[in-house]
Write a structure and sequence with these properties.
heterotrimer, A alpha/beta (130), B alpha/beta (123), C alpha/beta (104), A: 130 residues, 5-stranded parallel β-sheet, 5 helices, B: Hypothetical Protein Ychn, Chain: A
């Protein structure tokens, strides 16, 4: 089965981002295909390169990044939802004349067309919301 | 890669407009799906019915007008707007913006909408 | 055949009501996150106005139960049919259904 995952919640704020991570990880471990993980609304915060959980807490940001590297996944953060909420990559920061960028390199910034494509080309899109 | 089954997106709007980003961010998905010529139906249910009230003018609070944006949907090929009649009556909503073509649906018809969809987005 | 995931308690009446309307007898419901708390209220599961009246295929995510101090061995007998599952089984369950619809 080909799944895509839609993540609408930010780490720590709600459990949904963590549930999405665990599902994605379990799917890959059991040989399912994850076509894309798409981060939208507050979910864009999962792609932050600056978020720093305390040492004694689970680092979901690092966990997503490690998972992406391990399985060569396609992570897309919605460019408009991210910009609104203060997450920019280098080229967006340049384009908008902002002083810094803060999106982890494992996440591509793109439009909602990527979510629509994921729904067209996956068997199921599973949403984790809060 | 060709999809094996005809795809149909159901977008469920169950949030009131303006107080959260849900109405706007749902609409953005609808427009993207329309632009990519997907088959899309939108269901307004619960507090989402408030998105269809007439005479909305949020300009003074620096907000985009959700109902005006909803009216653009047919241009993107999205003309299947459904409204939960039970949600309307429990909220005493009698008058909707009639310039938006919509169909009232019963609970049974709502169940069918969910069964027919290949992807459901909920805002 | 839809797999519905539900992550809220019964106090979110509107959400539970919408699930009641959407759910059909072939569908399954998986309780995750705060949805687990519903198993502590067995009276819900004999209420005609609760989504459980629509389907007997009810599952619950074991880890979320454990986190919340919910012991699946100590449940009310009328909830015997609820199967507590792992994330791996959640994946398999989703794969067995035509679609997964999330309620949050």
């Amino acid at each position: 089965m080909i799944f895509s995952i839609l993540v609408l919640g930010a780490p720590f704020n709600s459990q949904s981002a963590y549930s999405a991570f665990r599902f994605t990880q379990a799917a890959l471990a059991s040989g399912q295909t994850i076509y894309r993980v798409f981060f939208y609304q507050e979910g864009i915060h999962n792609s932050s390169s600056l978020a720093t959980p305390p040492q004694d807490e689970f680092d979901l940001y690092q966990a997503w990044q490690d998972l992406k590297e391990q399985y060569q996944l396609d992570f897309v953060t919605c460019i408009a939802a991210a910009a609104r909420r203060g997450l920019l990559n280098e080229s967006e920061a340049k384009r908008h004349n902002k002083s810094a960028s803060n999106i982890a390199s494992q996440f591509d910034l793109a439009g909602l067309g990527q979510l629509v494509e994921a729904s067209a080309l996956s068997d199921q899109v599973i949403t984790f919301g809060h | 890669m060709m999809p094996s089954k005809k795809k149909h997106i159901l977008i469920v709007n169950q949030s009131a407009p303006y107080s959260s980003s849900n109405a706007k961010e749902s609409l953005d998905i609808a427009l993207a799906a329309g632009a990519f010529e997907q088959s899309v139906a939108i269901l307004f249910t619960g507090d989402g019915c408030y998105q269809l009230l007439p005479d909305q003018s949020p300009e003074k609070m620096h907000s985009k007008n959700i109902s005006q944006m909803l009216k653009v949907l047919p241009i993107y090929g999205i003309d299947k707007l459904f409204v939960d009649e039970q949600s309307l009556s429990s909220r005493n909503i009698v008058l909707l913006d009639e310039s938006m073509t919509h169909t009232k649906v019963t609970q049974l018809e709502i169940q069918a909408l969910y069964q027919e969809a290949t992807t459901v987005f909920r805002f | 055949m839809i797999l519905h995931t539900l992550n809220k308690t019964q106090s979110n009446t509107e959400l539970n009501q919408q699930l009641l309307i959407a759910c059909s007898s072939n569908d399954s419901v998986l309780l995750i996150e705060d949805g687990l708390y519903q198993v502590l209220a067995p009276q819900l599961f004999s209420d005609k106005k609760h989504w459980s009246s629509k389907t007997s295929n009810v599952y619950a995510l074991l880890e979320d139960a454990k986190a919340r101090g919910i012991d699946f061995n100590k449940l009310d007998p009328q909830l015997e049919h609820i199967q507590f599952i792992s994330y791996a089984e959640f994946v398999a369950l989703a794969a067995e259904h035509n679609n997964t619809v999330s309620w949050y």
